[in-house]
Amino acid sequence: MMNFFSRKKSAPSAKERLQLVLVHDRTDLTSAQLESLKDDLIKAISQYIEIDPDAVRIELERDGRSQRLVADIPLRSAARHRSG
Amino acid sequence: MTAQVITVTSGKGGVGKTTAVANLAAALAMDGRKVVCIDGDIGLRNLDVVMGLENRIVYDIVDVIEGRCKLRQAMIRDKHYPEMYLIPAAQTRDKNAVSPSDMIRICNDLRPDTDFVIIDSPAGIERGFRNAIAAADRVLVVTNPEVSAVRDADRVVGILEAEEKGSPALIINRLNPMLVKNNDMLSAEDVLDLLGIQLIGVVPEDESVIIGSNRGAPVVTDPKSRAGMAFRNIAKRMQGQDVPFMDLDSQSGLWSAIQRLAGRK
Ligand SMILES: Nc1ncnc2c1ncn2[C@@H]1O[C@H](COP(=O)(O)OP(=O)(O)OP(=O)(O)O)[C@@H](O)[C@H]1O
Ligand SMILES: [Mg+2]
Known about the structure:
Oligomer: heterodimer
Radius of gyration of chain A: 18 Å
Strand order of the largest sheet of chain A: 1-2
Number of helices of chain A: 3
Bound molecules: adenosine-5'-triphosphate, magnesium ion
CATH topology of chain B: Rossmann fold
Distance between the termini of chain A: 52 Å
Number of domains of chain B: 1
CATH class of chain B: Alpha Beta
Distance between the termini of chain B: 48 Å
Strand order of the largest sheet of chain B: 3-4-2-5-1-6-7-8
Shape of chain A: elongated
Number of strands of chain B: 8
Number of helices of chain B: 12
CATH superfamily of chain B: P-loop containing nucleotide triphosphate hydrolases
């Protein structure tokens, strides 16, 4: 818990927390479910192309009243394969 | 004329739905509109006291539905505005006494000779809320600039979208400009950005609201009240007028007084 008497202003933290809560409320997806979705995605993609599992980012983003699932999946350097 | 049916709802309780209904109705009546308010909060009747009409109740909405009286007999005429009426809620404990189709039927009966039917929804997303939105042509969602009220408002907006009720308009109530200025309250812009719906008005926190409800006289009748002015502006927007949003900052009582004393204004 944050220190109640900390001098930091509270409105930015309210907004940040609400942003997260609303995305999850709207999609009915918990953080745990999102993690397991990410694991499944990594497994599926790895069957076709070599990726760096630790660098994969997957996020729910808000865009007005709609949500999108945004994945950033860096591929392992192809240059290495070509030169090797 | 054919009435617009407007439902005021919120998800979270106590954010100012009943206050908004009483004030918007009075402001519309001041503009010469014929208005019928319906208290949809079965079992927790309140609109009557806020409007100062509690002593005039003979019949309520459940009497109409169960055929004990005619619709006209349950319409209580306001003391000051002869073109404003209230259909009170019943104090029964039977939540199933009213159904969505009852609300649609009553509103359709009112439509031909009314300009606005304004329905005060109960808090929550249960039966009473469903009844309140059933007949709505337009929904106004009331929230406060505060985390739980905004979260619940978002749930309600989601349900309204899923029910294809169209995108509701937002009333941000009890905004404290000084707290916003100090970055200790969500601003109207923050709330709008979070909820992603259109804004119809921002009502400041204002003690005259409480004084008004003590007297059973909505604050729109007080020309000096900031909240009253905000509600009057919303009523104008409901009538299709393009009214600029108030600059809450520049006149926020104490803050501007301090600014003046400090010689900064
Ligand atoms: N802008 C305001 N400034 C100050 N007080 C306000 C304001 N708006 C509402 N209030 C006060 O907040 C309290 C709750 O308001 P109200 O009864 O209208 O809420 P509600 O949403 O109808 O509640 P419920 O969910 O219980 O039906 C009342 O005491 C009212 O006077
Ligand atoms: Mg109420």
